[in-house]
Amino acid sequence: MRLPPLTEGRLVQRRNRFVAEVAIEGGLVEAHCPNTGSMLGCKAPGSRVWLSRAENPERKLSWTWEIVEALPGVLVGLHTGRPNGLVEEALRAGRVPELGAYGAIRREVRYGRENSRIDLLLHGEGLPSCYVEVKNVTAAVAGSVGYFPDAVTARGAKHLREMMAVVREGGRAALVFCVQRGDVTAVRPADAIDPVYGQTLREALAVGVEAYALGAVVSPAEIALDRRLPVITG
Question: For the chain: N or C, fewer Cβ within 10 A?
């Protein structure tokens, strides 16, 4: 996925869930933060960051925080509006052969008993539709292991319940962790942060929900999911 032209700066502070203050050449700007999670390990003041500028001059905040250098040389994509497109690109490129037989992909389709939207709905001739939920992974707490979630997520547990219902009714459902950083070699549920999510994920896998993880190469020019990663729940 090619990114729009980005401007480099230094993070002054993440003021709240939605706004960050960034020093760029020419002064201090306020940037929209498109990641409302805790951003564990990705919001240290002084970090190098990259911002995009909105084309709409009437937008309240003209800058959007796209990337942070979480560790020296480790760039992390923060924009939670990008993972669905990244995963769709990866599926079309055959990065997940288990889902490679589907020729059509729809986004943001309503479904389920709890009034949910599935991120990607895959269709293929003669195949049961596959409901794909995408989760963005930016936290890596212990060396090269990525963790999800980085904050308690009742919504994430709800999505797992919806996918379990799909499988129990004879359908197919898959969870794809989109890891927007290049130093992660495996993904685990963050049991210490949200034990309910971890427990629900294991229940979902036990009934047949599939789980995959894809790691990204991140640069200020583009982000691409280029490799498979193991999902470890033991």
Answer: C
Of residues 7, 5, 70, 4, the one with CA closest to residue 35: 70
| Confidence tier at 56 by pLDDT (50, 70, 90) | confident
Strand order in the sheet with 139-142: 139-142, 145-148, 186-189
From CA 27, how far away is CA 29, in angstroms rounded?
7
Helix or strand run (H / E) with residue 21: strand 19-24
Report the DSSP beta bridge partners of residue 106.
121
- Taking alpha carbons only, the member of 160, 179, 180 closest to residue 229 is 179
Same domain, 135 and 224: yes
**The tokens 């499988």 sit on which residue?**
167
**Positive or negative: CA dihedral 10, 75, 192, 19:** positive
Tell me the average pLDDT across 106-131: 95
Give me the number of domains the chain comprises.
Answer: 2
Range of the domain at 46: 6-77
Give the DSSP letter string of 182-232.
SS--EEEE-TTT-HHHHHHHHHHHHHT-EEEEEEEEE-SSBEEEEEEE-B-
Give the per-residue pLDDT at 143. Answer: 63
Of 95, 136, 129, 74, the residue nearest 226 (C-alpha): 95
